[in-house]
Amino acid sequence: MQLSDFDFDLPEELIATRPARPRSSARLLVADGASIHDQVVTDLVNWLRPGDRLVLNDTRVIPARLSGIRRRTSAQGETEAKIEVTLLEPRADGTWAALVKPLKKIKEGEEVRFSDELTASLESKEDGQGHLRFNLSGDDFDAALNVAGAMPLPPYIAAKRPADAQDHDDYQTVWARNTGAVAAPTASLHFDDALLALLRAKGVEFSHVTLHVGAGTFLPVKVDDITTHKMHGEWGQVSQAVVDEITATKAAGGRVIPVGTTALRLIETAAQDGELKAYEGVTDIFIYPGFEFHVADALMTNFHLPKSTLMMLVAALVGHDPILDIYDHAIAAKYRFFSYGDASLLIPPPRK
Q1: Distance between CA atoms of 143 and 166, rounded to whole angstroms?
Q2: Could you tell me which residues come within 8 angstroms of residue 117 by beta carbon, excluding any fewer than 6 positions away?
Q3: 106, 108, 110, 111: CA torsion to nearest 10
Q4: Per-residue confidence in pLDDT tens, the chain, 352 aa
Q5: Using an 8 Å Cβ cutoff, are 287 and 256 in contact?
Q6: DSSP state at residue 48
Q7: CA separation for the pair 345, 271 (Å, rounded)
Q8: Strand 35-40 relative to strand 65-74: parallel, antiparallel, unpaired?
Q9: Are 265 and 306 in contact (CB under 8 A)?
């Protein structure tokens, strides 16, 4: 398949820069087989059945965008320069891999001050990234980062407005608990406590997995032959308890429905040999048409970028032509797109 097979024209005004409030009031496109229904997220309770299981990604987004000052003393005296940092992931040696702008101007060993409490020194440069060692660790680091950092909004939102205090709440799920993501599992942003209570009362069950979403999720596909695309790696974990829960749901005739592509990618990674097993490690699974799904029976997800790996994933689930029809409907009906946009519930025909 070619990259152009996953392209479509998206009006700029349909890119959401703020979420719906309350969260569960966002619109929900339900594609059930060949039929399309215009709903709102609270209607999810009408489409799920007692015994269905939602798989939720409980990763917690860190405020990974930092603005700092580098001071340098030279023959001309002391000079200052602004440094912009986006944290990517912690490394085994205790440093953080980060995008640093301008990376060329900062020298190894130099210190950058982000606040009165938080500083970092550049230990090395590799593959266009800087490796930073912070002056704090553990809970002290988390507390200082929460004060100094801004939420790492996706590029298509950040280009329209800067992150602000409201994003600390808006860009975090209500069940976030395992810190480590630099992008949110955005389909999960539509859930609030009231909706969760309604679903529990309906008999819907929940399982939590962890996939720390990386900045690579926003990298464009640069090859025409999509089968040659190399996915970025992200750390994830599926516990034995979750395996047992999903297995029991399947045995009882319930459906397993990941909330978000991250949860789907992780549970399908854990079932690559056809049987779901406990999993911990890095996944770089690439799901595109022709992929054989072993666990997911449906998917709740937002509307994705043209020519993105996520567009390829949803096409794998429901079919290439059907997903283009779904997106044509969404655009005509003015659904809001991307991370802060509306949602879809994609229910393909049962697998044989």
Answers
A1: 18
A2: 136, 144, 147, 148
A3: 100
A4: 899 999 999 999 999 999 999 999 999 999 999 999 999 999 999 999 999 999 999 999 999 999 999 988 777 778 889 999 999 988 889 999 999 999 999 999 999 999 999 999 999 999 899 999 999 999 999 999 999 999 999 988 999 999 999 999 999 999 999 999 999 999 999 999 999 999 999 999 999 999 999 888 878 899 999 999 999 899 999 999 999 999 999 999 999 999 999 999 999 999 999 999 999 999 999 999 999 999 999 999 999 999 999 999 999 999 999 999 999 999 999 999 999 999 999 999 887 6
A5: no
A6: S
A7: 22
A8: unpaired
A9: no
> Length of the chain in residues, anyone?
352
Encoded amino acid at 194, one letter: A
What is this structure's pTM? 0.93
Q: What are phi and psi of 180, to 5 degrees?
A: 160, -10
Other CB atoms within a 10 A radius of the CB of residue 328 amount to 13
Task: Give backbone dihedrals phi and psi of 246, rounded to 5 degrees, phi first.
Answer: -65, -40
Cis status of the peptide bond prior to 19, with omega within 30 of 0 = no
* Integer Cα distance of 297 and 244 in angstroms: 17
Here the tokens at position 175 are: 């069940």
CA 135 from chain center: how many Å? 28
